[in-house]
């Protein structure tokens, strides 16, 4: 590796680790936690974890994290996707236990909080993205069409989650939250452009995992 | 006072104007501008516990929830009206019984409750208030604080007969 490539790898990995770590640290040490019971604390943190993972997902999908082979990148992308789903379920279930009527209002799109609709849309988009991932190869969809659908839904998840998070007055610290949300949306659009998903000729054909070199 | 002389042209113009303006709604009868009743806010009734007791203060106090209760139409202050208050505070969640309390309005229709500091919960620092005594239509309010550092929150009720 040249010095320039090493520097580039260091900057990419530095940002990829430092920003989520800072955001998680601030959220985990928020003064608001003193007045919340464990279920509510866990629900809030699960939301932050989901946001962090959604920032990593497009980078893994594009295979642009230095040092990770396309095969490894894709395998991690799958597991990270499963973790996003789990984090969203913990987030919603924990909030439900904490205050059922507030969560019911959000799910029925009648909550007074302006950020809730962003969260509800993101949640359904995550469910749809994951369902599509589980059914990959079992649907009558050509690989490129599958990838375009998966990407559209994933974009909705990321944008919805970022829009949800920035409007919330909660345990996340304002600056680290804004930077993380900006990076997540930026990474998502970077992956779309990088993989040329809507181009007639994409950068990389959407190959099944087994076809990738280890 | 001399009666203004109208020629035929003016009479026709006035008649024509009245013919156009009348059904168009440009002319409306003078109507007393009554005070409109306050509608319930979305999410206002969340974690409501009917029959919260009247208390001196909720918990240790330190935060003030205040407001007025008036009658729709003439805006007359309504004394002795029971207002229930609850919120997520430094001392408990909204659903906790000890986070709930009620107070009565004074002769000027003003109520004031000393309660623990409201802290942001479910994304916004907010409180809940209810009028549910039955003489007037039930109203649930959910005011949001402009800053989580505020130590005071206001909510105003205009009630209409049940």
Describe the fold and architecture:
Chain A: This is Ferric reductase. The complex is a heterodimer of chains A (214) and B (162). Chain A has a single domain (3-211), classed as Four Helix Bundle (Hemerythrin (Met), subunit A), CATH 1.20.120. Helix content of chain A is 71%, strand content 0%. Chain A starts with a helix and ends in a 20-residue tail after the last helix. Chain A has helices spanning 3-28, 38-62, 70-98, 100-107, 116-134, 143-166, 174-194. Chain A is globular, with a radius of gyration of 18 Å. By secondary structure, chain B is of the alpha/beta class. Chain B has a domain at 63-159: Sandwich (Protocatechuate 3,4-Dioxygenase, subunit A). Chain B is 10% helix and 25% strand. Chain B contains 1 helix and 8 strands, in the order H-E-E-E-E-E-E-E-E. In chain B, strands 1, 4, 7 and 8 form a 4-stranded mixed sheet that branches. In chain B, strands 3-2-5-6 form a 4-stranded antiparallel sheet, with no helix packed on it. The longest helix of chain B has 17 residues, at 8-24. Chain B starts with 7 loop residues before the first helix and ends with a strand. The mean pLDDT of chain B is 90. Chains A and B meet through helix 4 of A and loops of B.
Attribute tags:
heterodimer; A: 214 residues; mainly alpha; Four Helix Bundle (Hemerythrin (Met), subunit A); 7 helices; B: 162 residues; alpha/beta; Protocatechuate 3,4-Dioxygenase, subunit A; four-stranded antiparallel β-sheet; 10% helix; Ferric reductase (chain A); transmembrane (chain A)
Shape of chain B: elongated
Poorly predicted parts of chain B: none
Tally of helical runs of chain A: 7
What is the subunit organization of this protein?
heterodimer
Q: Order of helices and strands of chain B, N to C?
A: HEEEEEEEE
Structural class of chain A: mainly alpha
Whole-number average pLDDT of chain A? 95
Beta-strand segment tally of chain A? 0
Distance between the termini of chain B: 53 Å
User: What is the CATH-assigned architecture of chain A?
Assistant: Up-down Bundle
Structural domain count of chain A: 1
Radius of gyration of chain B: 24 Å
The residue fraction in helices of chain B comes out at 10-25%
What is the SS-derived class of chain B? alpha/beta
CATH class of the domain at 63-159 in chain B equals Mainly Beta
Residue stretches of chain A low in confidence (pLDDT < 50, at least 5 long) are none
């Amino acid at each position: 590796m040249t010095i320039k490539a090493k520097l580039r790898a260091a900057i990419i990995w530095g940002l990829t680790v430092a920003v989520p770590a800072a955001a998680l640290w601030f959220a985990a040490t928020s003064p608001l936690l003193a007045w919340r019971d464990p279920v509510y604390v866990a629900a809030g943190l699960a939301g932050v974890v989901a946001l962090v993972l959604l920032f990593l997902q497009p980078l893994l999908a594009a295979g642009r994290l230095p040092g990770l082979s396309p095969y490894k990148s894709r395998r991690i992308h799958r597991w990270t996707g499963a973790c996003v789903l789990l984090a969203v379920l913990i987030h919603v279930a924990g909030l439900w236990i904490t205050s059922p009527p507030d969560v019911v209002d959000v799910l029925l799109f009648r909550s007074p909080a302006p950020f809730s609709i962003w969260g509800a849309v993101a949640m359904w988009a995550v469910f749809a993205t994951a369902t599509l991932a589980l059914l990959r190869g079992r649907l009558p969809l050509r690989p490129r069409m599958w990838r375009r659908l998966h990407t559209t839904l994933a974009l909705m998840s990321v944008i919805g989650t970022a829009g949800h998070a920035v409007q919330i007055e909660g345990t996340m610290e304002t600056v680290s939250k804004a930077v993380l949300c900006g990076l997540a949306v930026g990474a998502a659009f970077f992956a779309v452009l990088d993989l040329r998903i809507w181009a007639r000729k994409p950068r990389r054909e959407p190959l099944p995992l087994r076809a990738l070199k280890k | 006072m001399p009666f203004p002389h109208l020629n035929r042209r003016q009479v026709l113009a006035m008649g024509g104007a009245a013919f156009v303006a009348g059904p168009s709604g440009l002319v409306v009868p003078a109507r007393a501008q009554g005070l409109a009743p306050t509608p319930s806010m979305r999410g206002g009734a969340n974690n409501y516990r009917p029959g919260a007791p009247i208390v001196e203060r909720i918990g240790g106090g330190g935060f003030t929830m205040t407001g007025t209760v008036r009658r729709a139409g003439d805006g007359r202050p309504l004394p002795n009206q029971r207002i229930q208050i609850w919120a997520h505070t430094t001392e408990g969640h909204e659903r906790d019984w000890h986070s709930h309390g009620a107070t009565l309005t004074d002769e000027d229709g003003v109520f004031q409750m000393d309660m623990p500091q409201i802290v942001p919960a479910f994304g916004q620092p907010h409180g809940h208030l209810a009028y549910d005594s039955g003489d007037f239509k039930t109203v649930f309010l959910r005011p949001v604080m402009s800053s989580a550092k505020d130590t005071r929150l206001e909510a105003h009720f205009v009630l209409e007969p049940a």
